[in-house]
Amino acid sequence: MLMSFFHGIVLAFALILPFGPQNIFLFNIGAMYPRYSHALPALITAAVADSALILLAVLGASVLLLEFPMIKTTLIILGVLFLLYVGWSIWVSVPVIETGKNERVKTWPVKKQILLAASFSLLNPHALIDTIAVIGVTAFTYQGSDRAVFTLACIIVSWVWFFSLAYMGRKILRAKPNFYKIFNRISAVLIWGSAALLIYQNFFSA
Hints:
Blueprint: H1 2-16, H2 21-29, H3 40-67, H4 69-92, H5 110-122, H6 125-139, H7 144-175, H8 178-204
């Protein structure tokens, strides 16, 4: 049982650590608001959505994805369109942070926070493939309580990482407000690059 828990921790961290679109979004949102608590709707939504995907994967969604390639293709196309939109949204929506008591920040309303956070889990092909194809398939190597412990470990990593990432983004980006605009532009380019890579890997790579 301890081995399955450790395996879940290591695998989940290996999949979640790369700085992809979802991580960029959460790193960014931690610095957008005067208080860390204002970013909680996005953080909780992302963690809950990720947990739901992990549970679905463990319960058998991975088998469905592997058996019907057309589902994967459809998810990739929708995901690419989503990433293109998000990249544009981040590029044109540059928050302005001024340190001090009279702080002004251009922020997203709660509804948009929740919508974007859910989309990064449910429409992001990287997150879907990592969760369903990797975690789901690996979970089937365990049985009973070992599978439950493995699943719990993966879910714990998601929650801890998402909340920590937003906190790190807050500390780093708010310490250097002038860098925030540059970071947003870099983030947009990385997200567009991620979309282009998805297209190449799935439709043009031999």
